[in-house]
Amino acid sequence: MAQEIELKIKLNILPDVPNANGHIYSKELIKKAIDEYKQLPHKIGSLEYTGATLQLDKAAFEIEEISEENDLYIATIRVLDTPEGKKLKEMIEISSENDFRLCHMAWGDIDDAGKIEEGFVISYYSIFPKSKCA
Q: The pTM is what?
């Protein structure tokens, strides 16, 4: 079995700041969605978005923990011993954990100003180079 790799990655979401897609998340909504996500029995993520739900053959990591530090959310991830996990391990070996962000796939309503409304639910996370995270 391959050696487990564990690292801390920032989630690409800040309260009350528009992201690259122009979406705005309130602090309360982020906290509620992340708290609900943390209750899931398995928090598996991928190297790229796989659609509305995660395709298991694309599983690359598992989120072990999510913590908040001054309005930043930090996830501790464990790289899986899967084909996609091996690709992620190679990416990590030539970079640093600061080069990546976790971006969410989620559902929810958006008002005309781009503000995410009640009902925001996180489905899964994908890891991207921070330069490509929306």
A: 0.85
